[in-house]
Amino acid sequence: MAVVKVYDQTKKEVGELTLAPEVFEVTVKPEILNLVVRAQRAKVRAGTHSVKNRSAVRGGGAKPWRQKGTGRARAGTIRSPLWRGGGVIFGPQVRSYEFKVNKKIRKLALRMALSSRVADNSMLVLDSIKLQEVKTKSVVEILKGLGLRKALIVLPGDDMVLRLSARNIPGITILSQDMLNVYDVLRHSQLVMFQDAAKAVEERLK
């Protein structure tokens, strides 16, 4: 059972938090993380690519010349894929790239991603970050003091002031705990969780 220190925004220790081993100490299996990340990325693909086949290309309704007697090859339409300006054979069509991954596997992958951050000592638990106003400079100073460069910050709920203050900072992503996902955890080298957010995630993933 892992016990991590809880810090305030000045990186002063203010307490400890015991993490549930069934959520933060799971054996990591790369193949499961790979499957869930691929599914997550495939789901956001637009899939709007399309080309015209011979039936969709304008024109070509009449047979170019008679079937026999001309000495030329048989031709039924000037929009044949063999002709310039014709349709495309087996070209891309509008489609969805989404594929299903079971809910249990998705939850397991998220446990594994969180566990990998705990095992790497790249997870930081904060009491809170309090801002008086929307000001990016204030957040930059706080993050610099915490030693954060490329970090995912997980909040217990939506904090409009903090989110607006940090949205233009390169490498920093802010999510509420209900939007936590495997891809964002893995693509950031550091994970920052507010204490209440960590408890909420534990309850959701147990």
Task: Describe this structure as you would to a colleague.
The chain has 2 domains: 3-45 and 98-205, 3-Layer(aba) Sandwich (Ribosomal Protein L4, Chain: A); 47-96, no CATH class. The chain is 34% helix and 15% strand. The chain has 7 helices and 6 strands. It has helices spanning 21-24, 30-43, 103-119, 136-146, 160-166, 182-187, 195-205, and strands spanning 3-7, 13-18, 123-126, 151-155, 172-176, 190-194. A 6-stranded mixed β-sheet has the order 2-1-3-6-4-5. α4 packs across α5. The longest helix has 17 residues, at 103-119.
The total tally of domains equals 2
> For the residues shown, what is the average pLDDT?
94
Unreliable parts: none
- What is the second-level CATH architecture of the largest domain? 3-Layer(aba) Sandwich
Features:
34% helix, six-stranded mixed sheet, elongated, Ribosomal Protein L4, Chain: A, alpha/beta, 206 residues, 2 domains, 15% strand
Please provide a brief summary of the model.
With 206 residues, the protein is α/β, with parallel strands linked by helices. The protein has helices at residues 21-24, 30-43, 103-119, 136-146, 160-166, 182-187, 195-205; strands at 3-7, 13-18, 123-126, 151-155, 172-176, 190-194. It has a six-stranded mixed beta sheet.
